Amino acid sequence: MIGAGYVGLVSGACFSEFGVNVTCVDTDKDKIERLTRGEMPIYEPGLDNLVLSNVRAKRLSFTTDLKAAVTGAEAVFIAVGTPSRRGDGHADLSYVYAAAREIAEALDGYTVVVTKSTVPVGTGDEVERIIREARPDADFDVVSNPEFLREGSAINDFMRPDRIVIGTESERAQEVMRHLYRVLYLIETPIVFTSRTTSELVKYAANTFLATKITFINEIADLCEKVGADVQDVARGIGLDGRIGRKFLHAGPGYGGSCFPKDTLALAKTARAAGIPLRIVETVIDINDERKKGIAEKVVAACGGSVAGKTIAVLGLTFKPNTDDMRDAPSLDIIPALQRAGATVRVFDPEGMSQAKALLNGVVWCDDAYETLIEADALTILTEWNEFRALDLERMKSLMKSPVMIDMRNIYDSSAMAEAGFRYASIGRPPVKPR
User: Fold this and answer.
1) For strand 111-115 and strand 75-78, is the pairing parallel, antiparallel, or unpaired?
2) Within a domain: residue 218?
3) Of 259, 291, 323, which one is at a domain's C-terminal end?
4) Of 36, 241, 293, 361, whose CB count within 10 A is highest?
């Protein structure tokens, strides 16, 4: 497994749980040393125990020596990062291609080279060309096998996936991949074999469709606020339609994370280069960017039109719960906007504080949810961590300067908040005043 980041580490640990002998390779010596000691470089529920148990069973190991790991391997997965390239937003494939060159030098016998990283259409062809050019004598196939892991539930997603997509027309490679995923046959997981190009596009199309659902319900939420409707009831009303489905219909401050922002952008760039612009996708990108930048105004409005000289408590910094990932998190737009408007911002996140400290300046870092509320003029919830769902409302009121909550994730009941004496604003629901 080339790359011991989020995808590589989770995939490697899960494959080893299936009984496969896995070596995770990374150029970051410090990361490899930490993993060898059992220290996780990322937060993912259950990952530490999964890694530890398979290291002890000698099915999982870590190294910086790519050649030693690849030599004799039946399958080599490329699971390196593909961040948005500066300047044009396309996926930066330099790490993928660098891995392909190193793999080429180490190939020994028939090997399936698998792109697990999220890559644009045609990347597999280039990986094959690179390896073939470097090693004309090598016996190998290049396969696309995109990941569909959700941060916070990645282990379950790998162990019990909705589907496995494998892009190859080589029967020899298909047999190797079937063997790797043989455990999933027992639970009748659909395995979709398709062309390499189609497999690469499936990943982008899936993430872009989900980003579109989020953006759609966010725009409906804005309309609900104007006409006095409740977006949660609208979402339930349409989500019960089997053709639509209930997932990803939760209104909020906009999507973020490691996948949706870069994947929507990469797909739009790929389509434009092919002469087939995806106008829906381009609009989704624009709307989401504008939403994250402008939603701080909701906090300002709830504070009477100005936050100058006021203290705002913020609960949740990561783009979603059960992860420490701060990539493209809405908090990175909202908090600086509040600071520019003159607010002092007090923050707490159960897992994201370490990463956030490198990205946010001038905030007051707190040790728990209640500490953020001390002398706060308003509270806003940006991430729906479970521990924020049942806060002691009376204790909150005793700590705050004024009982104002702006719930960006709609995790509280409007009537209950009014009954408790809060001025409460949320996303896509009528605001309520204290009773």
Assistant:
1) parallel
2) yes
3) 291
4) 293
Closest to 118 (Cα-Cα) out of 322, 220, 270 = 270
Cα–Cα dist 17/226, whole Å: 51
Considering the domain architecture, whether residues 243 and 175 belong to the same structural domain is answered as: no
- What is the rounded CA–CA span in Å between residue 263 and residue 84? 8
The residue segments making up the domain with residue 37 are 6-194
Q: Which long-range contacts (CB under 8 A, 24 or more apart) does 179-186 make?
A: 180/15, 180/18, 180/20, 180/75, 182/18, 183/18, 183/19
CA angle 269, 274, 277 (to 5 degrees): 60
- Number of structural domains found in the chain: 3
Q: How many CB atoms lie within 10 A of CB 361?
A: 9
Task: Detail the DSSP E strand segments found in 117-227.
Answer: 140-144, 164-167, 191-194
In this structure, what token pair is assigned to residue 131? 């390896």
Residue 4: CA count within 13 A, CB half-sphere: 28
Supply the pTM of this predicted model: 0.92
pLDDT tens digits, the chain, 435 residues: what are they? 999 999 999 999 999 999 999 999 999 999 999 999 989 999 999 999 999 999 999 999 999 999 999 999 999 999 999 988 776 778 899 999 999 999 999 999 999 999 999 999 999 999 999 999 999 999 999 999 999 999 999 999 999 999 999 999 999 999 999 999 999 988 899 999 999 999 999 999 999 999 999 999 999 999 999 999 999 999 999 999 999 999 999 999 999 998 899 999 999 999 999 999 999 999 999 999 999 999 999 999 999 999 999 999 999 999 999 999 999 999 999 999 999 999 999 999 999 999 999 999 999 999 999 999 999 999 999 999 999 999 999 999 999 999 999 999 999 999 999 999 999 999 999 888 887
Measured CA to CA in angstroms, residue 321 lies from 5, 341, 353, 385 at distances of 19, 27, 13, 5
229 and 188 assigned to the same domain: no
- Catalytic site positions: 259
Residues 186 and 61 in one domain: yes
Angle, alpha carbons 159-177-271 (nearest 5°): 85
